[in-house]
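Hi everyone, sorry if this is the wrong subforum. Our group has a chain we'd like a structural model of before ordering constructs, and none of us has done structure prediction before. Sequence below.
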Amino acid sequence: MKAKKIYWILALLLASLIQNQRAYSAPLPSQARKENESYEQAWARYWNDYEKLNPPVSPLSKTAYSARVPFDHLDLNSAPSWDSLGSDFSSVQEIFENSRDERALIEPGRPDFLRRLSWLYPDDGCFARTALTGQKLESWHYPRPAKLFIFGNLQVRTPNSPRGWVSWWYHVISVIAFQGRTYVFDPAIEPGHPLLVLEWIKQMATNPKKVSLSLCNGYAYEPGNLCYESTRSAENQALSHQIYFLQKEWNRVLELRRDPKEELGEHPPWLAR
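Answer:
Right subforum, don't worry. Here is the predicted structure as tokens:
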């Protein structure tokens, strides 16, 4: 794992230096739902921007949004299998923890303080965190996870928001299959361990029948991307988007009157559990 860690850090350091110099060419594909906004209204707002900047989607193709189905119609059989790890779930748990805890990102204002993915800023940025998680796992030679999108009037309780909760119109996360069960990696919601899909849904919606989901290829980055057709270039802005959220995360920890050097360094909250 040490060699893999060094490779990942070097790759991200180089990419950070390059992408930090670039201006954002498109609006962030924000997951945040505004106050008193329904997820349908948020989708319309998002799609209005997306259509202006991207080529039309063929009527024969499905986007992550148009491929959505109710939970009881969701086919999880295409989630990549990690059964090659053996029968012991501790192997999956170890990989989850390694991907959660890896500090390999550089925030421009703090070049000597390596950062993790922005798990402590749950308000937004799932698209970037999930893309970089997938890239990291793939570089470690594990099967690339699929992307699981969920849509609805989502709300999550969290100690990492001054209000005690955050609201989303969609969320996306890495998903894998292991020994006949399907798990998501989502430390922004549950930093302790992978969650079964239904457990994950219930963290965001009291009634799973009121949300819809789509299980997409591992490179679909945002709701307007193709769900079943792999387009690796969709993730091109993942690193620059994530770097943008690192500053948000630092400021959030300060806002909560906690110590960012501790929590974003060697002592994240989940290690104190």
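For your construct planning: The chain has a mean pLDDT of 92. The beta strands are 69-70, 105-107, 110-115, 146-157, 165-178, 181-185, 195-196, 212-216.
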